[in-house]
Amino acid sequence: MNNSNYTHVADLIKEVEIPVNGILSRTLYNDDRLKVVIFGFATGQELTAHTAPMPAVIQILSGEARLKLGDDTIEAGPGTFVRMAPQLEHGIYAKSPVVMLLLMMKNA
Question: What is the pTM of this model?
Fold first, then answer.
């Protein structure tokens, strides 16, 4: 639910369907300061390492993943929270079906 003062999502996991094979994404919110995207990854799917010009936050809502964060690789599961600095090389590999929330801070 959106109104001019807030955006309400009752259950984030229900906002994206995990595909049989592939990655789906859906923008939940976007303005001049913040973009919020929810992703559904099928097992074995990967977003290869890349960078972004803005700070961002990843939160794993369900599933098991391997995250590449700069030179580090970490195992991530439900509840994992990662804040990333601009230009940090990052990627994700879904070890199981994964739902991930991404927040991108524009003009930070």
Answer: 0.92
